[in-house]
Amino acid sequence: MNLALFAALLCAGRAVTLDEALRSARENQPQLRQARATTEAASARAREAFAPMLPQIQASAGYQRTTANAITRPGSPPLTGRLCPTAADPTAVCSTWTTYNSWSDSISATQLLWDFGGTPYRWKSAEAQADAQAASERATDLQVDFTVRQAFFSARADRALMQVAQDTLTNQQRHLKQTEGFVSAGTHPEIDLVQARTDTANAQVALINAENTYETAKVALNAAMGVMGATDYDVSDEALAPVPGEDSEVGPLLDEANKSRPEVENIEKLVRADELTVRSFEGAYWPALSATAGFTQGGTSPSNLGWNGSVGLSLSWGIYQGGITRAQVREAEANVAAEVAALDLIRLQLRSDVDAARLAVRAAKASISATQEALTNAKERLRLAEQRYAVGVGSAIELGDAQVALTQAAAQAVQADDNLATARAQLLRALGRR
Asked: C or N terminus of the chain, fewer CB within 10 Å?
């Protein structure tokens, strides 16, 4: 979704759905743009590593206005000055400051023939690193999706708690009005009226706090969606659908996670890249063979240039470089060992992630029925307390306790519903699903 369009929809005060929030984050979240750019840079580095295996062609051209004075080399006979004959003096010597045109151009090509795999392995290592970064980008995608879902359902829960606070205030205001009538009629003591006013004021404070918490949650949701805008909108009242296989045992879910989680692929590619780096450094123990070709021209006039051509082979061998090659090999081998350990660690973490999310879903589903039963009983308790208070049998304390119990039960029901949505979002993240 276009960022400007989405910001306009937010300002319009409409309800934002989970799908809209996810779509906005996938298009606008700076983390994803950064990850995509990093992947593109890694791909470009792989192409850079491939370049040395192709012919390297260079061309140059130049012009100089230069003197042509002879220079005596040590051990050579003295040189006489250059002649500049004239009609009056055919043997006249040129001035040392006489200048001449000098034109030159050249083109040369070099092709690496063989370096014992050093360059090819560097290219393959860079490709593996690019693949690893692509997997890291997908991991960022999953994390952004999870963050949006978490922020969305947190805001949804805070909206529901705000409604609980509003319902509590409405009930307290009704109780206050009822108590005022009873006290005026002399059927209830004046302390009941003081208690009712206190409970109403406390309910107003609770509502203010709930409204502020909901607004704060929408600020966090805006950040997760990658938008900068007002929070004068509501989140839609929708649940997260059951995750296919959420009631399965841990084994099948763990198998799926090991195949799907991009973090595993990321480290596997890094292991491969480091292994190839070891082989590229080992190639430096041996010589490199290249073919060369060149063509040059030169002279005092572009229309009268002399030329030379050449072809040849070049063999270079760094026989001793202070032990740097061996140190590079040891470093790369240590990097391989570190990445293998990281791979084992991520697989342990996968087990923990999958099992924790699966158990959280199970616990949340079980708690929902219990909290709903508690909420039903709390409503009935308040109804009975109101009847008892109305006929003068019950006390204001009993009525207040029943109202508190209903508020707590309603909040627990909201929390249980939020726990289930968050647990399912965690399970999607753990399984590598979007």
From this structure: C
The answer to whether the beta carbons of residues 425 and 431 sit under 8 Å apart is no
Please answer whether residues 67 and 95 qualify as being in contact, where contact means their C-beta atoms are separated by less than 8 angstroms. no
Instruction: Record the pTM.
Output: 0.82
Task: Please tell me whether residue 12 adopts helix, strand or coil conformation.
Answer: coil
Give me the phi and psi of 342, to 5 degrees please: -65, -35
Structure tokens at 229: 């805008």
- pLDDT (tens digit per residue) in 135-191: 999 999 999 999 999 999 999 999 999 999 999 999 999 999 988 998 988 888 899
Spatial CB neighbours of 26, under 8 Å, sequence gap ≥ 6? 32, 141, 144, 145
Residues 3-56+115-288+321-431: name the CATH superfamily.
Outer membrane efflux proteins (OEP) (1.20.1600.10)
Is beta strand 99-114 parallel, antiparallel or unpaired with respect to 56-67?
A: antiparallel
Question: What does the pLDDT look like over 2-14, one tens digit per residue?
Answer: 555 455 555 555 7
Helices (H), 241-323: 250-260, 262-282
Q: How far apart are CA 283 and CA 53, in angstroms?
A: 14
Angle between helical axes of 324-390 and 262-282 (0-180°, round to 10): 170
